[in-house]
Amino acid sequence: MHVANSGRWAASVIGFHWLMAILIVVVMTLGWVAEEYPSSPDKVTLFVWHKSFGLTVLLLLLFRLLNRWNKGAPRHELQSWERVLSRGVQGSLYLCMLAMPLSGWIINSAADFPLNVFWLIPLPPLTGASETVAELAEEVHVTILWIMLSLLVLHVAGALRHHFIGKNQVLRSMLPGAKAGPGQ
Amino acid sequence: MSRISAVVVLLWMLPGLLPAQAAQAEPPIPRCSLPGKSELGFAATWEGTVFRGKFNEFDALINFDPADLAASSFDVHIDVTSGRTGSRDRDEGMGEPEWFDFMAYPAARYQATDFQDLGDGEFLANGRLELKGMVHPVPVKFSWQQLPEKAVLTGGASISRLDFGIGQGDWATDEIIGLLVEVEFSLELLPCAAP
After folding, report:
1. B176 vs A44, A134, A135: nearest CB
2. Domain ranges, ordered by start, for chain B
3. Which residues contact B107 (CB under 8 A, 6 or more apart)?
4. What is the ipTM of this complex?
């Protein structure tokens, strides 16, 4: 594995990070609005957008992990507990990015709804129609949502702590266009 | 009186002699649908993809004789609230006022007394469907199978859901859910039990 020597993440890693950060916020917002929306064709349309962006996250995740593996990570002077905690949170976030779209796909399959990504790409169901499976997958989907939101709070808090308390380059190294500090 | 009795007795004694006349003299046997072995379903589309549903509770009273259409009749009571499509979200929507409005219209009824023989074992019932407080003619195409132990009635009809106000407001378009619904049924019939 190639390890980046500069203090910054590779541009492609930064690109994936922020693109998917925006997408995930959009997907969560769409899911929440669609769920609250009164029964109507617009509600169905909101869900199609939610599912389409959610599955885009799943697709991007595969490329992102390959890219991340390929490009390596910048070296930061961190305490071992900081390293363990941040790796744990980041790894868990990756798992959530995988589990969220998959559990959503299972809900849609078990609830016997068609899946047509952006009204263009039809995807097959992952399971047969089953109300039990649909309800179980829904519980999983919502539970992972709360886990993911908690992890995001930790992730952001950690980045801000690095920046304002640790006064290190960790946050800056992931900002698009930001210059690495002197000596990095 | 005795002359008529003599004719009836004669007809009974010689069933092979005048079978057609004997059949015409008898009205069709009233038959009822067997709940476990009869199905009343429908196929509709969701964003162009077919989904299926069924009504679990219904009673069909069928008086049918292919040789005596004039004396035939259908009377089917359907518990609309028993409709299921295999999706909780969809089923909850079904009962809403803009769809079937279970609270106001829990029952539907199909009645037919006008029948046509289409040939090749196919028949047409020119009946009327009462659904959600509205009555419209709904022709039902069917075939009739007379087996030794039971009769089997299979067929279907095509219904435009907006005729009955099914899917109102924003739903009154084919944007998500198609306007045409195919109804399909297969009924196993036995002579009705005495009331």
Report:
1. A44
2. 27-191
3. B77, B78, B79, B80
4. 0.72
CA separation for the pair B101, A149 (Å, rounded): 39
Min Cα–Cα distance to chain B from A179, Å: 49
Confidence of residue B89 (pLDDT cuts 50, 70, 90): confident
Looking from the CA of A114 toward its CB, the CA atoms found within 13 Å total 20
Pick B88's closest partner by Cβ from A41, A48, A131: A131
pLDDT at B88: 84
The stretches of B29-77 forming alpha helices (DSSP H) are: none
E-assigned strand segments in chain A: 116-117, 121-122
Residue to mutate among A37, A46, A113, A139, with most B CBs inside 10 A, is A113
As its CATH architecture, domain A11-74+85-174 has: Up-down Bundle (1.20)
| B27-191: CATH architecture | Beta Barrel (2.40)
Q: How far apart are CA A106 and CA A128, in angstroms?
A: 9
Residue A6: pLDDT band by 50, 70, 90 thresholds? low
